[in-house]
Write a structure and sequence with these properties.
alpha/beta, Rossmann fold
Length: 277
Amino acid sequence: MAFNDTDQLSLAGSTENILRFDDIEPVLETRDLSVAYGENTAISDVTFQVPKNSVVSVIGPSGCGKSTLIRCFNRMNDLIPSATVKGTVDFNGQNIYAPGVDPTEIRFRIGMVFQRPNPFPKSIYENVAFGPRINGMTDDLDEVVETSLRRAAVWDELKDRLSDSGLSISGGQQQRLCIARALAVNPEVVLMDEPASSLDPISTQAIEQLIHELSSEVTIIIVTHNMQQATRISDYAAVMMAGEERIGRLIEYGTNDQVFGNPKDERTEAYVTGRIG
């Protein structure tokens, strides 16, 4: 059965390995978060906090539940009929899974950028204006579009092409357009699932610089397999692992310097040094 307490606990992380912030109210906090798809548990008992205006990398081998975890933060798993979620995800102190919470509103406040750029088959302008229009905004859309594209560091490249299709620009530009689209509704958190994995090195560098700049305004949680990228861009790192039972668990969470320089768990050290992966 899913969420069976008798599941193997060989990969359960010690609470001593999980950084806690006692002097701040985190923008996001999970408590005993578990997700199952049908009878198969994907992640189990994940508890950690995300400080405001920080960059948190979620790292770990393939199949350990990284994407499942961040999809909990804006209720994207609701869109999978077989998915069930247990535990809590507090956003600014409110459990987003409580009765009466509108998942659509949550997705505006907690935006998401996917692994592959996914512009709408609309103009560049309409891609960015889409969210504000859905929210009922009709005035100042030109300003919103320009500001969002500037925040995504792509205005100078696209300002003379706003009527062109969002599908007509390069992959790196498409990904920054998707980031601009997410920023247009002024989210407090942006989730990124391997946002640079399909991009060339120059575009990847542009995305990393953008993440660094945006972190002064929004909280960013990024899934990445690239350890060098995680060390460059993150303030904190959360390490996920799954054993033979294929249930993902959080085994370590701390500052970048601690996780990559002085990991507390030998499995973390093995992963970040490339001995497992």
